[in-house]
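G., the chain you wanted modeled:
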Amino acid sequence: MNTTTVTSPDGTPIAYHEVGSGPGLVILHGAMQAGRSQIDLARALAADFTCYLPDRRGRGLSGPAGSAYGIQREVEDLGALLRATGSPYAMGVSSGAIITLRTALAEPAALRKIVLFEPPLDVDGSNPTGWLERLDRELAAGRVEAALVTGMKAARLGPPLFGLVPRPVLELLTRMMLRSERRAADKAEPTFGELAPTLREDGRIVAETSGDLETYRQLGTETLLLGGTRSPAYLRQALTALEDVLPRARRADLTGLDHSATSNADRRGHPERVAEEVRRFLTAGS
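Predicted structure as tokens:
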């Protein structure tokens, strides 16, 4: 696996990993992840595509988010990577899917097809971001475990029992997890503790794009809307809303899978099943 860097228009270096051969496919990760978080998916697609896995700004080997961070910076980063690699395809995961969607809208000639896996769009208040103020307070106080619990509750990704466990217990369990993770850390990937501050950036992307649904009617790029049948209702709602407004979209539901579907197998992902749908969509008509 090769690792290279491209420079975004504001001067920020964006590192990316390269796997496979064939037409270029950029796979853009979501919250609490870095480029290698979808390495199993990239390997499952490597026989048909050259997969590029960027570390989004503020993560991994890339430069900092910067004081002027926002959706525009992320769009510029992805645009720079598309130009550097000549990739005709992009796949965005979670918040990465919002960035992919906005990049296709801003640069309509840059992409032939895109795949959007469960973008956490706020549709009529379905994904509020009022939790960001609490997150900032917890991070400022050095309470990383509390910030992670806040993010998890906001994302509604935990098991049903999660909502019944008292918050102090959740924070204690998270603190123990962070200690264990530090001892077993893989230096190639950032830890959850290191990624915790990036939750504010992902939350900001959701907040910035809230209420923009009608804007996407003008997107002419062929799009696959991908999601799991066991994912939270607000993520399925976002896919349904996009299905209604995107003129060239088709949808595929992964039965029995949830928001972790694109992740590596050791993170409860099912990359082979996701790869089947992505490959079928990208090679159709080629």
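The first helix runs from residue 39 to 45.

Shout if anything looks off.
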